[in-house]
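Anyone up for a design puzzle?
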């Protein structure tokens, strides 16, 4: 757990689409609850599926915020979240269908750039020889993982001695290893990494980003901040 994590809440939503290829962005909202307790609980929901014969998807969001700061500057706040999508079988008319919403996917952490582990904020990093620096990370929470999306953020002064966060690069990979172009990492500049871990994309390793299995889950975790020597 992050020592400065502030919980935002735990929310679930029930949505419907006329066909799977429309995706979550084109869904019709059926029901939700923004006051879901952080502990286990059961909620009864009444709803009508406007697209008979299609699959409904229950979406759970657990979110929190953490502060991130460049050395000597005030902190900015970023959100972290776990999103879980679970198929709900409502073929019967008995109103007895249930959906178990919970998190099972792995969570990334323990980042390393070359041999240097990012185990504290403002970590000093010396880049290796050659055009690339190797980035690796572990699973700090075990579970399934099919795809990782990694974002490199640069930290700088926002003009008022606070921290400004700007995206510099993003990658997708089915493995916990990347080669980062060293021209993206400027001497004297500070950075932070975010890794989005997804499960429920069984064919991602072969380039198939369309096939989805449920439960589908994506979460985000941030590294400690670091400065390039």
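Challenge accepted. My sequence:
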């Amino acid at each position: 757990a992050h020592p400065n994590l502030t919980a935002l809440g735990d929310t679930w939503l029930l949505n419907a689409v006329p066909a799977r290829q429309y995706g979550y962005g084109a869904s019709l909202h059926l029901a939700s609850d923004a006051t879901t307790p952080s502990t286990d609980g059961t909620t009864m929901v009444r709803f009508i599926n406007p697209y008979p014969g299609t699959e409904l998807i229950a979406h759970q969001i657990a979110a929190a915020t953490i502060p991130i700061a460049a050395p000597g500057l005030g902190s900015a706040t970023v959100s972290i979240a776990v999103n879980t999508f679970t198929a709900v079988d409502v073929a019967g008319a008995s109103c007895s269908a249930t959906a178990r919403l919970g998190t099972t996917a792995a969570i990334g952490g323990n980042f390393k750039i070359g041999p240097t582990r990012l185990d504290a904020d403002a970590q000093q990093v010396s880049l290796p020889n050659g055009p690339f620096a190797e980035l690796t990370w572990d699973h700090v929470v075990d579970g399934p993982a099919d795809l990782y999306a990694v974002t490199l953020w640069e930290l700088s002064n926002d003009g008022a001695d606070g921290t400004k966060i700007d995206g510099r690069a993003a990658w997708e990979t089915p493995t916990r290893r990347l080669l980062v172009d060293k021209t993206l990492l400027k001497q004297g500049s500070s950075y932070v990494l975010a890794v989005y871990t997804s499960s429920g994309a069984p064919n991602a390793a072969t380039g198939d980003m369309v096939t989805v299995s449920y439960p589908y889950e994506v979460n985000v975790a941030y590294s400690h901040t670091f400065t390039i020597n």
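A detail worth pointing out: The chain is about 0% helix and 50% strand.
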